[in-house]
Amino acid sequence: MANTVLEQVGFIIGDWIPKEASIAVAAENQYIYYKAGIHDLSIKEGQPVSSGTIAARVAKEGSKVEMYVEEAVLGSAYYGVGYPITIDNRDAVLVITLPPDYVVGRKKPLAFLTGKQEDCWRPIPVEKVSHIESSQKKTWFYADEEPYCSSHTLKNLKEQLPDYFLTVHRSFIVNVHYIEEIAKDVTSNYVLTLRDGSTIPVSQNHTAEVRSRLGF
């Protein structure tokens, strides 16, 4: 009976959520249903719920949870929303998972970024972030000349940061308040020098936007 209901629910939900999304249901600390989307986490029915996942948090807190989960937890990073539900009089969890760079329209830009330094996570107000870099398949942001590793992708952040952040290169986003000067290099491409002495290249694809936004 429960499996039939879950199949119907999965079909209905799958009809309106993005095709990238996967649907998972867990009860009594194990997954009892999984419908894979394009972004497949390869969850199996009967698989235990791992700590650090959305399902684990919802089961513990008994309330809706929306968060990003690192690659180390399930082997693939993801963004998701989890809800507490009841199935056959059992407490259960429904989780909708999406690619990590998926953005549900946020009414307000990010107020802080949480980054990892060694074994600690630290929330940093975005106004203190000088620039953000994508390097070696990881995203790094810099505040007070200190590097922090972020679980966000550069594409994700581009859509969520305040408007004083400017994309200047496919690998760099810069806080305009930290730009010290703008000059040209030997190839006549623009280079930004930040207050901390960092130099950031401006790609030709972003030159027109940078000149328009900065007014020069």
Describe the overall structure.
- The chain is built from 5 helices and 15 strands.
- Strand 9 and strand 10 (146-150) form a beta hairpin.
- A 5-stranded antiparallel sheet has the order 2-1-5-4-3. A 5-stranded antiparallel sheet has the order 10-9-8-12-11. A 3-stranded antiparallel sheet has the order 13-14-15, with no helix packed on it.
- It is elongated, with a radius of gyration of 21 Å.
- Helix content is 19%, strand content 41%.
- It is an alpha+beta fold.
- The mean pLDDT is 87.
- It starts with a helix and ends with a helix.
Fold blueprint:
Elements: H1 2-14, E1 22-27, E2 30-35, H2 54-61, E3 65-69, H3 71-74, E4 78-87, E5 90-98, E6 112-117, E7 120-125, E8 129-135, E9 138-143, E10 146-150, H4 154-158, E11 165-169, E12 172-175, E13 179-184, E14 190-194, E15 199-201, H5 204-214
